[in-house]
């Protein structure tokens, strides 16, 4: 029965009571007063031993008997039509068991687009066979440069065929499309005249910022192993979305969903690129059907860079205005970015979400180019948007003669973030001791900078969890979603064990299998807030059933009993007790089984999560090299379920942010249209020696909203890093870096131009 | 636009495996292989040079203390032999060119990239993989430290990362933070787990746990 419960919400000494409506079958939310022994502690991953011994089986490691190896031939051209295609020699090569190809006449829109594929007895033979595929192309004009693609006479990327629809259009927004440019114009509040609003400003800053294309570069490439048994298809897939993959494969192959089973036991990183099935999965399934044998198709590193997604680049102009006292009055943002043949180059997330801005106009353009499609990448749009907005905020503070933190605190939407800014300032000694911009002397100059970022509380309501308690007392917790390395499997065990009052080692988690109850795709940092409350609801219901069994054995009323330390006992008399295993042995039938669904969110205290980061850098004014010495990262995510793994997420977000700020850059050759650095040495990602010291601080927020009080933390920690680093560089050398990545040549050029004051 | 025969596949130069073939595997005789168009005929080898392949050859690898006999093409890398022929799938292929360290194994106690070495050339050396680090269920100290300190996220870089750290501890019982950073400088982690790798390795060293390897 639905009921009202009083719960304590708040953070850091700011607590209040809130009355919330709890749906039927749901326990009262854990709040600031809850004394928990497993949840919110530091718990090593339940699957860590498998990972440190090499026994964890990733898709790449799966090897069903008789398995073949497939390889794709990708288009060498950024734009071309297939005019001839002859697979006969490839097919005739001994060891080749199946071939697949596109049709002659197909127009290919980017380098790496799938042309043909073979399945053979070894990868070497498959590679040999691809060299025997005879393809003739008619090269077509292409465009891969943001500025060139915007011109009216530029080659049209989508001169025929469908244009990918925009992912998100704010309500009331206007969408226009001309040439390669699709623009979404939105105002907040609707219809606001940004010119008039900014005319009220007493101080204005204006600037243009650029960011680069970043590829996800997960270590395990996209890939799948396809195996048919009759008309049932099993796919092991390196995916962030087992159920989305299942649905898309079923649709592509015209199969009922229940004939497709997707498995993903362990997965080697995704970061947003692996939310969908991808053409390679369909190709593998087709090759496996034709070859009558299981087929493994893992993309290679080059294909991974070319064809599996990226964070679009951006050119952003913004104009930000404030009153003399620092109150923001308006922001006008125009941006262009290349999502290749995909969509999603918008950057206005931070502008909408971080600060109270009474008048906002955003004009965001996807500029289509002949390059692999953009895909969601760890906080889509936010690191780009933040890089510009948070530097503009710094410039505004300087112009106002205001402390950059005071300006932010005055305008932040989220009171938790105000507290975080204060906490960070207290922790970061370098901030308190910082000099004026450019005041540092010497060859190597130190600086410190700050930036804020936010993310959303996303939930996928299509989430169910099954809990089985077996006769021997073992508990299985089941959800078909995947653990992409964030620790999902571990918190599921923690939450179930905590709620049932039993030791962790009685709990086994089963996931990564679409034959289990439905779960979310791991995108939008929604995995934890979708699954954790559902696990708890299932565990709560299962516990009630176990207490019911125990009540009969102890001749007590169920509400007189509780469970702790693996014993069910009378609340009034601890001695009147029975062990969990004894009760389990008396379960009627062979198990207690409960299926719970994700309840709707109820009254929430804070709808978004926030963070602030302080970056300390050293800039070598002779070489232009920037070293990030330390990042102090303050972050909230509601209730952290596991402080150990949450810390890892904070580290990971910051390090990816450093990598984005200083190193990563997809380079396309303007003449050939091909990627120049499709590898891991010329496409640079942050290594151990580039890694700053990181002081991560989690601010617990008792948030209600769901029974576990959780939000996600996967994405927000990578949002402010590049902006904080850019602000720190400004503090060190007095010159603004308005373009990512901040490479030594750019630093030297900026120093030269700016006089390096 | 003129029709243009695409010949990239042909003039694209040697692949890495072809390079291995010409360097280590000796000459190939075009007439012996199917689809002769694939292979180029090289000059006959100088006297005293052993010619292997292109067919399979029988080799013996000493892996984790046991001799394993297997048949591989001379172009087969040690990584492929370990993974595909010996089912030791802990070592991962990520970059396929020695720039990420995910395939790190020990060769006579030294960390090497198994993707950069031919299986035929690993004969007569003591090969240790991640699977050979634990004794039964008892983890090596460095493995236990990785568990305790959460020095892993998705776990794909972890075997290579651990092998690099284990090699460090094998040769340096009390490393500094810089030593650890240097030891894993060639191991990329995309999840960003380096700080905890540093912590774990220093903690394992402090416990006096010599990594086996």
SSE sequence of chain B, one letter per element: EHHEEHEEEHHHH
Q: Helical element count of chain A?
A: 19
Beta strands of chain B, count: 6
Based on CA atoms alone, the radius of gyration of chain A comes out at: 28 Å
Question: Would you give an account of this structure?
Answer:
The complex is a heterodimer of chains A (757) and B (213). By secondary structure, chain A is α+β, with helices and mostly antiparallel strands. Helices cover 27% and strands 27% of the residues of chain A. A seven-stranded mixed sheet of chain A has the order 5-7-3-16-13-14-15, with helices on both faces. Chain A has a six-stranded mixed sheet with strand order 9-10-20-19-18-11. The longest helix of chain A has 28 residues, at 527-554. The relative contact order of chain A is 0.13. The mean pLDDT of chain A is 96. In chain B, a hairpin with a 2-residue loop joins strand 4 and strand 5 (110-113). In chain B, helix 4 crosses helix 7 (194-206). The interface between A and B is large, with 79 and 73 residues.
What is shown here, in short?
By secondary structure, chain A is α+β, with helices and mostly antiparallel strands. Helix content of chain A is 27%, strand content 27%. Chain B is an alpha+beta fold.
Topology:
The complex is a heterodimer of chains A (757) and B (213).
Chain A: E1 3-11, E2 14-22, H1 48-52, E3 68-74, E4 80-86, H2 88-92, E5 96-101, E6 107-108, E7 114-120, H3 123-131, E8 134-139, H4 146-150, E9 174-178, E10 181-188, H5 194-199, E11 203-211, E12 214-215, E13 223-229, E14 232-237, H6 242-252, E15 260-263, H7 278-291, E16 295-298, H8 301-307, E17 310-311, E18 314-322, E19 328-337, H9 349-353, E20 360-367, H10 382-400, H11 404-411, H12 415-427, H13 429-432, E21 444-456, E22 464-470, E23 475-478, H14 488-500, E24 507-510, H15 527-554, E25 561-564, E26 567-570, E27 577-579, H16 580-585, E28 591-597, E29 608-620, E30 626-636, H17 643-662, E31 693-699, E32 701-702, H18 721-733, H19 744-754
Parallel strand pairs in A: 3-16, 14-15, 19-20, 23-24, 30-31
Antiparallel strand pairs in A: 1-2, 1-32, 3-7, 4-6, 4-8, 5-7, 9-10, 10-20, 11-18, 12-17, 13-14, 13-16, 18-19, 21-29, 22-23, 22-28, 25-26, 26-27, 29-30
Chain B: E1 4-5, H1 8-11, H2 16-23, E2 57-63, E3 66-72, H3 78-85, E4 104-107, E5 110-113, E6 126-128, H4 141-148, H5 158-171, H6 177-183, H7 194-206
Parallel strand pairs in B: 2-6
Antiparallel strand pairs in B: 2-3, 4-5, 4-6
Helix pairs in contact in B: 4-7
